[in-house]
Task: structure prediction
Amino acid sequence: MDDLHIPNKMGRILLLALEEILGEDDLQTVLARAGLRDLRDYPPDNLERAFPIPWVPRLTVALEDLYGVREGRNLAFRAGHACFHLGAQDLSLFLDVLRVALRLLPQNFRLQTGLQILAEVFNRFTPQSVRVEEAEGVYRWVVENCGFCLGRVATAPCCHLMGGLLQATLAWFVGKSVSVTETTCIANGAPHCTLQVEPGV
Ligand SMILES: [Zn+2]
Result:
């Protein structure tokens, strides 16, 4: 990754999501633990690429330090869900129309559409590159240069924030629950992070 920044808007949504999950006081504790006290003033709501990507794993590491690995990753996953819902508020007019258009289409088509649109957001607005693969009804979300675990070393996949974001996005598109599991992670020694996606039953 040459440019290690994402749009201010994305950083702002992440902080609002963490505030929603943790409450204001605990978020301040997490920011202090991450060495990011200055983020008390959230970034402005614009698309300027000025929010450093390494701050994202600093925040999730701080969650794990403060709450323990298991609960910290659970909180990150929930924050990923909240990121989708906060981001969707911005796009509510567009999404309301899209929801009607999608309603009559087959489930797999809706799932693919969700994967492709979110991949496009990642590829266009962040320095990460995502591709979507499919084999026998199972989809894989493959990130070549993942910002969620940038610089981390972990004994198990740790991109739960991305998993939550992907799961909430796809559940919206499909209209029911979707299973998302990170099967390989750069922090765990793999060449890329892979999230396996299966429609729920
Ligand atoms: Zn990962």
Observations:
- Residues 146, 148-149, 157-159, 182, 185-187, 193 surround zinc ion (CB under 6 Å).
- The domain at 5-199 is CATH 3.90.1520.10 (H-NOX domain).
